[in-house]
Design goal:
This protein is 30% helix and 15% strand. The protein is α/β, with parallel strands linked by helices. Helix 4 crosses helix 5. The chain has 7 helices and 11 strands.
Length: 257
């Protein structure tokens, strides 16, 4: 399959340090797994807007908007409205939980979805089974791409199959992979920005070749955004829904344990 690209994603800036200070720069914010955490999402986006200053924030959502947390329906409605009002500034990717919901709604094994938190989604919609998901929401889930690249970063829900070209990644890997990907230290050709696997300490996991943004928003952790510009490959900073902004170390300062 061919992975869709993103053109003119960010305006260039001169240096990494300058990008940290320049509040008028166009910045991209990648948001980790939401899982029905609507209030955390709204708070985080507010902090991102303040951080961006007078510039234009662009958002990439890594997937898993539904299940487990209490407000999946509100999250989906908000993201659909946000994307419709600013389609060039908002990219929503598909996560494995959207994939499970689609399968359940289309007559697949609904028990698998329910076992993975689908019951919370049904409750948030006030319905009894996946077939009752609003048709416009189900249609939106089906339009969500599996990954997107800006030429330097490859944004994807779970990760990639190491050794396979990025434009030939299998859907199963992009939605579900943990190992072999997480422990693979090689350069994948682009920096991989992903979620899917909750980090143990509630802080985004920065590595030389990848960044994990799943900080467990639905189970007591923060919802986290990573900030990128066009000059650097790795993140400039990490922002959580409580307003904490942490400068990210340069990738050449990172070491695998």
């Amino acid at each position: 399959m061919t992975i869709p690209g993103m053109l003119n994603l960010m305006k260039p800036s001169n240096r990494r340090a300058q990008a940290r200070r320049d509040k008028s720069a166009v910045l991209t914010y990648a948001i980790g797994d939401i899982h029905g955490s609507y209030l955390k999402l709204r708070r985080l986006l507010g902090h991102c807007a303040v951080h961006c200053g007078s510039g234009t924030p662009r958002f990439i959502f890594i997937g898993d908007y539904v299940d487990r947390g209490p407000n999946s329906a509100e999250v989906v409605r908000f993201l659909m409205k946000t994307q419709a009002s600013a389609p060039n500034l908002t990219m929503c990717l598909r996560g494995n939980h959207e994939a499970m919901l689609i399968d359940a709604a289309d007559g697949g094994d609904e028990l698998v979805w329910l076992f993975n938190g689908g019951d919370a989604t049904l409750q948030s919609y006030g319905i009894e089974n996946a077939a009752e998901i609003p048709p416009e929401h189900l249609a939106w889930f089906k339009t969500l791409p599996f990954a997107v690249s800006d030429g330097k970063r490859f944004f994807v829900h779970a990760g990639i199959l190491p050794g396979t070209p990025l434009d030939e990644q299998p859907e199963e890997a992009m939605l579900w992979i943990r190992e072999r990907f997480l422990s693979d230290t090689r350069d994948h050709g682009q920096y991989i920005v992903h979620g899917h696997t909750i980090v143990n300490d509630g802080r985004a996991d920065v590595h030389p070749n990848r960044l994990n943004l799943d900080t467990g928003a639905y189970c007591g952790g923060p919802l986290t955004a990573a900030v990128f510009d066009d000059a650097s490959i790795g993140p400039l900073a990490l922002i959580t829904d409580d307003g904490e902004i942490t400068p990210a170390p340069a990738l050449d300062e990172q070491r695998w344990p």
